[in-house]
Specification:
Blueprint: H1 4-7, H2 19-44, H3 49-65, H4 67-78, H5 83-101, E1 108-113, E2 118-122, E3 127-132, H6 137-150, E4 154-159, H7 164-180, E5 188-190, H8 196-203, E6 208-213, H9 221-224, E7 230-232, E8 240-244, E9 247-252
Parallel strand pairs: 3-4, 3-6, 4-5, 6-7
Antiparallel strand pairs: 1-2, 8-9
């Protein structure tokens, strides 16, 4: 005779993490991403203008070639918009943005003023956080990657949970192209599992130099409480921040 008590299987439910525990786990996870990005950024900051331009050109081409496929993915995943419009946005974010910035000098001395006796030297900010919405997931991702790497910055993304797959695919396409063109590993990263805790921990990390976000996210309390002043990084032409005596005083166009 079988003893039911001895054969009974006991299932113990996983303990639900408290809010504080979730936040601590998010800090640990995003902190690892930031530390890897810092290593990549340190290497990338030594690249020449020619090396940077080669990487940016390769990414723009890869993004443009994948534009239609990414448009289909964005519409399928988010249920927003139409494929033709998404394709137009993707091409603008790659082809038009690239043509706008490809001749700009972003390494070393970018201006000499003999009359007033000063020079301007371009320097990267460091590691950027990129916040991507569900409305323009693939185009915004590719735009932010192009302007970040053109100015020798590393970038870590937090994608909208309802547009996670297509956003990651867009980032992966440009990241693969960047690596083939000579970019350092981890110069582009993203949060694999979208959550408010992970996003908040990322943008509040003191090692994040600046945040690229859209107008929709500026109302979020975590963004307003961030260590660094956020920069509106939609699909416009914002590309850098300028320093005067090592102090951030405004976004440059």
């Amino acid at each position: 005779m079988v003893d039911a008590k001895k054969t009974q299987t006991t299932v113990t439910a996983a303990k639900e993490l408290s809010a504080d525990e979730k936040m601590e786990e998010a800090k640990r996870y995003t902190g690892e991403l930031v530390n890897k990005a810092l290593v990549a950024e340190e290497a990338y900051a030594t690249y020449s203008q020619e090396q940077v331009d080669k990487i940016v050109a390769a990414m723009a081409l890869a993004g443009s070639e994948a534009s239609l496929a990414l448009a289909h993915e964005a519409v399928d995943e988010t249920g927003r918009g139409v494929v033709e419009d998404k394709d137009t946005k993707n091409r603008f974010a790659t082809e038009n943005v690239y043509n706008s910035i490809k001749h700009e000098k972003t390494v070393g001395i970018i201006e000499r003023n003999q009359v007033e006796g000063y020079i301007k030297v371009a320097a990267p900010l460091g590691v950027l956080a990129g916040i991507v919405p569900t409305t323009n997931p693939t185009s915004t991702t590719m735009f932010k990657i192009l302007v970040a790497l053109k100015t020798r910055n590393a970038i870590i993304f937090s994608f909208h949970p309802k547009a996670q797959r297509c956003s990651i695919h867009a980032a992966q396409i440009l990241y693969d192209a960047a690596l083939k063109a000579g970019a350092p590993k981890n110069i582009i990263q993203w949060i694999d599992k979208a959550s408010l805790e992970n996003t908040t921990a990322l943008i509040r990390n003191p090692k994040i130099a600046s945040i690229l976000f859209g107008n929709w996210w500026s109302r979020h309390g975590a963004c307003r409480a961030a260590v660094w002043q956020p920069v509106n990084g939609g699909r416009g032409r914002q590309r850098c921040c300028l320093y005067r005596s090592h102090r951030l005083f405004g976004p440059g166009c």
